[in-house]
Specification:
The chain contains 17 helices and 13 strands. It is of the alpha/beta class. The chain has a domain at 147-380: Type I PLP-dependent aspartate aminotransferase-like (Major domain) (Aspartate Aminotransferase, domain 2), CATH 3.40.640. Strand 4, helix 7 and strand 5 form a beta-alpha-beta unit.
């Protein structure tokens, strides 16, 4: 990563004789916009949250629970800060029944959950003995893979269940080498390195990849593993607004004018798991070529997209050679565990030598490597291409039906991650309860994973879903939308109903006020 030096003179100062012209933004698609939360909802969410916290303070003061006191901890530092302890015990606990549901089946199109109830307001739970079979809209199994049992058993018999060593010592087998070669061919790059954990593929490789004099321009919504890797690497980081390429251009030009950075790296994702949006790769590549940047892209959630299922480069029609570093995970579209770093042979060798994952982290278990290799070969075959096509069809169908309900849906039209905004934490909890009762297992996401007023339901689609699965889930979702009044969208009404609600009137008034303000400016 030394392309930045061509913008410096012999004394290290930046060239000023040939200014770089601004990027022509007319060549690129319009940015994906997210509908803003209605002001009325924002006020009500804030009021509701502070009311819950006030009542929680009263409950803690009047009826302290025995779990609040740490016992036999004399001389030790407290396990939680006062704020963490209060939030986890008195705010998060109220919706704890919506999280961490025990699973007793494989994560296929259907999933089986163990029913549990609480007799003490979610302090503890007990199992009822019933099992609930639900449509699975919560797992990351985008391509719906299962199988490879014969290859997995053969690898377990030959190499064992685990190698108990790092890749640099005694943790590399011919199976790992073969897997890396075929993975590099699939991605269209020179080389790839497989690690045993997807989270550490970012956290343990970024310190060996980024030099101290490297500036990272990071998207505001990157994953926690990337954030932790940047902290460990101690690199300088500047954040641009989510998917805002004009803001990225502004930061990149400012950094280039400073002339003190060896490399400038753009950190982004293929599909953002909370927003469902696809990274603006064409614009990022154009900025890279114009300003001499480097691109590091996390494709954990984007493998399976595109005509050949090869990720965001395939989806956007861009050459994989224009991306410097490809990172991915095997726990999403691939049915296993681990991750990879891919790119040029020189880059992968640098990561092996200077990164921590190859030298210190546990090697990928051979049975897992065998299963990943089977899935990779299947994805390259016609059957795998058919899975990618089915995923696109399911995504398009589900998103169109969901938007017809006049709910606010985030994300790219081809993203299998579909967030539906409910804004309120209490409505999010009720959504999870109602859907589970109707036989649909879905994930609710709220504060602190999202801003306080942006709670949402996050639906993850799979190629294993049939239209019957999707229709059942959509019918349950529509019933919840009608019960809780979740038709918040201000966009033109797409539903077939002629019913006019308060939210519709409020949205029309907001649009009229915005147009009036524009007219008054002139």
């Amino acid at each position: 990563m030394d392309s930045a030096n061509k913008y410096k003179g012999s004394d290290g100062s930046p060239h000023r004789s040939s200014p770089i012209l601004p990027l022509d933004w007319t060549k690129f698609d319009k940015e994906l916009r997210f509908e803003r939360c209605p002001i009325l909802n924002l006020v009500l969410m804030q009021f509701g949250m502070y009311s819950v916290m006030f009542l929680s303070f009263l409950s803690r003061w009047l009826f302290p629970h025995k779990a609040m006191k740490e016992r036999n901890r004399e001389g030790y530092a407290p396990l939680y800060s006062r704020l963490e302890e209060f939030f986890s015990h008195y705010v998060y606990r109220r919706g704890r029944h919506c999280y961490n549901s025990p699973v007793c089946s494989a994560p296929n199109a259907d999933i089986t959950l163990m029913e549990r109830v609480s007799d003490d307001y979610n302090w503890t739970f007990r199992f009822t003995g019933r099992q609930l079979k639900c449509v699975n809209l919560g797992s990351y199994n985008y391509l719906g893979y299962r199988g490879g049992r014969g290859k997995v058993e053969a690898a377990a018999r030959r190499y064992g269940l685990a190698l108990h060593s790092s890749r640099a010592e005694l943790g590399t087998t011919p199976l790992h080498v073969e897997f890396e070669h075929e993975l590099a061919d699939f991605l269209g790059v020179e080389a790839a390195m497989v690690v045993g954990n997807g989270f550490s593929a970012n956290t343990l490789t970024l310190p060996g990849l980024l030099s101290p004099n490297t500036l990272v321009l990071s998207d505001a919504k990157i994953h926690a593993s990337q954030r932790l890797g940047l902290r460990v690497a101690r690199s300088s980081v500047r954040v641009f607004q989510h998917n805002d390429m004009r803001h990225l251009e502004e930061l990149a030009r400012r950094a280039r004018a400073e002339g003190c950075w060896d490399n400038i790296v753009v950190m982004m994702e293929g599909v953002y798991s909370m927003e469902g949006s696809v990274g603006s790769l064409p614009a990022a590549i154009a900025l890279k070529k114009q300003l001499g940047l480097h691109i590091y892209i996390d494709e954990a959630h984007s493998i399976g997209l595109g005509p050949r299922g090869r990720g965001v480069t395939d989806l956007c029609g861009e050459s994989v050679r224009d991306v410097d570093v490809l990172m991915g995970s095997f726990s999403k579209s691939f049915p296993g565990m681990g991750g990879y770093i891919a790119g040029s042979a020189a880059l992968v060798n640098r990561v092996r030598l200077h990164g921590h994952a190859h030298a210190y982290a546990q090697s990928m278990p051979p049975p897992v490597a065998a299963q990943m290799l089977c899935a990779l070969r299947d994805l390259c075959a016609p059957a795998g291409q058919a899975r990618a096509t089915t995923l696109r069809d399911n995504t398009r169908y589900f998103r169109e039906r969901l938007r017809a309900m006049d709910v606010v849906v985030y994300g790219h039209p081809q993203s299998p991650v579909v967030p539906m905004m409910v804004y309120s934490l209490t409505k999010m909890a009720v959504c999870v309860e109602r859907l589970l009762t109707a036989g649909v297992a879905a994930v609710g996401v709220g504060f602190p994973a999202t801003p306080l007023y942006l709670a949402r339901m996050r639906f993850c689609l799979s190629a294993a879903h049939t239209r019957e699965h999707l229709d059942k889930a959509l019918a349950a979702i529509e019933a919840v939308v009608e019960e809780l009044g979740l038709r918040y969208s201000r966009e033109p009404i797409r539903s077939t109903t002629n019913r006019l609600t308060f939210i519709d009137v409020y949205g029309c008034l907001c649009v009229c006020m915005q147009k009036a303000r524009k007219l008054l400016r002139f």
